[in-house]
Design goal:
alpha/beta, Protocatechuate 4,5-dioxygenase, Chain B, Glycoprotein, Type 4 Pilin, Dna Ligase, domain 1, 8-stranded mixed β-sheet, 19 strands, 22% strand
């Protein structure tokens, strides 16, 4: 998805980054696979950051210590934090700060009548350790701690104050001749499914859909005017960070790419990048294609054993889509009777209309208690939350063609074991991971398959990787 912010006047880069600790393999273990799309998208955002080569990164975290009526800013020469609170103290960051930029932000904010306090000033009693809203995204974006960092805390001042603070950051960077990237750390709705951490609201998905739409179009102004009831129903934590990013980008002419959106565990995780068109194309490809390893490609077919026409698992996907699209309800989720189906597995639900792709989202590994639950979850995602398409409408239901692909367990392999017509591939390097399904049109060789998977993960040619292969069974 592509948008542009007004006219180009200076080079800046912005990133919207989710921050669930469970996304980090050392915290989530096997469960971190449920956020593979976000992890892979952050790998692509890392490439954008590397190509931009910022002098400093400024990050706003909803979980950084602060005040309701004041923003906070780190002024220290060294910053550190870890994920010990999530039983992973080994995931730790120690980075240089940028006291000069922080001082310029304080000066600019005072001139703009925005209250910002230095976090290291003992008079304010603020914790100096970096929180997970910083450590999680930066462990993906800058694992080598190459870039000096300034951290902002949000406030409960009006949205307009957040937007103006973003402009203050941009102007402070310009006054010092700094190339600055701004990371807006934050998650979307926390109330998307029954059992979600903040409770369930049937309208929560509307907020996330609007956020994806507005950020795709770089319409940051509209973020300040979202219906307060929609915000309350969402239980979000990222909106103020996103608005501040908009102030930072204002007047830059930055283009946008939404790289991933997913909502395991009932929380919406969005990853997007903003910057000069040439920089985005260089990092993400000339077509500007978003990195969505959990979304099926726009063309090509997936291989595997084909199930019977309108099989049991496809009927479940169809019933789910029809119930949710018509009235927002969830069907009863029975057990699947077919003994050939696994109890749990990753699955992709793809929707076509008139032979054209209409939506497809899936999971690499099981994220739900049963395969039936996996299909229900991904059917709703494919029909209503694939960011490439508008949600399916009730008038379309009768014309939909639905397929379900069930993924076999992945197994470690060597390059010689791969066959793109038979096996999909997962390419991993640390926390970066890229997936490509088997039997895709135009992917005829192992080299092509690996090259695309590497690009999705943000893994440069020549970097050491580990390989896994897997098969899929298709049911129609």
């Amino acid at each position: 998805m592509l948008g542009v912010v007004k006219a180009m006047s200076m080079d800046v880069v912005g990133i919207v980054a989710p921050h669930p600790p469970i996304m980090v393999p050392e915290v989530g273990g096997a469960e971190s696979g449920a956020t593979a799309s976000s992890s892979d998208a952050l790998g692509a955002a890392r490439l954008v950051l590397e190509r931009f080569a910022p002098d400093t990164v400024v990050l706003m975290s909803p979980h950084a210590p602060g005040y309701r009526d004041a923003f906070g800013v780190t002024t220290a020469a060294t910053l550190s934090g870890d994920l010990a609170a999530f039983r992973a103290p080994q995931v730790a960051l120690r980075l240089s700060g940028d006291p000069e930029l922080a001082a310029a932000i304080l000066t600019g904010a005072a001139a703009a009548d925005i209250t910002v306090v230095p976090r290291e000033d003992d008079r304010f009693g603020l914790d100096r350790e970096l929180d997970h809203g910083v450590v999680v995204p930066m462990s993906f974006l800058d694992p080598e701690a190459r870039y000096p960092l300034v951290v902002l805390s949000l406030s409960y001042l009006p949205y307009e104050a957040h937007r103006r603070l973003g402009s203050v950051v941009r102007d402070a960077a310009a006054s010092l001749g700094r190339r600055v990237a701004f990371v807006a750390s934050g998650d979307c709705s926390h109330r998307l499914t029954p059992g979600a951490p903040a409770g369930y609201s049937p309208d929560a998905h509307l907020f996330d859909e609007l956020i994806v739409e507005l950020l795709s179009a770089c319409d940051f102004d509209a973020l300040e005017h979202i219906d307060p009831h929609s915000i309350e129903e969402a239980g979000e934590c990222g909106l103020r960070s996103f608005i501040t990013l908009g102030g930072f980008l204002d007047g830059s002419g930055a283009a946008s790419r939404v790289l991933a959106y997913e909502d395991p565990w009932g929380v919406g995780y969005l990853t997007a990048v903003f910057g000069p068109e040439a920089a985005l194309q260089a990092a993400l490809g000339a077509d500007g294609g978003p990195v969505r390893p959990s979304l099926t490609p726009d063309s090509g077919s997936k291989g595997g054993s084909k199930g019977s026409d309108e099989s049991e698992i496809v009927r479940l996907a169809r019933e789910t889509i029809e119930c949710f699209v018509r009235d927002g309800s969830f069907p009863d989720v029975p057990g699947l009777a077919d003994p050939a189906l696994p109890a749990r597995a990753g699955a992709f639900v793809s929707i076509h209309e008139g032979g054209a792709l209409r939506g497809c989202i899936g999971t690499i590994r099981a994220t739900q208690p049963t395969l039936a639950d996996e299909v229900v979850h991904n059917a709703i995602e494919a029909a209503t939350r694939d960011p490439r398409f508008s949600p399916v409408s009730p008038t379309e239901l009768g014309a939909l063609e639905i397929k379900v692909d069930v993924l076999h367990a992945a197994e470690p392999c060597e390059m010689a074991d791969l066959d793109p017509s038979t096996y999909g591939v997962i390419v991993s390097s640390g926390s970066r991971r890229g997936l490509l399904l088997p039997d895709l049109e135009g992917v005829d060789t192992v080299d092509q398959q690996l090259d695309i998977a590497r690009r999705k993960a943000g893994i440069a040619p020549g970097e050491p990787v580990s390989l896994e292969r897997f098969k899929v069974d298709r049911h129609a």
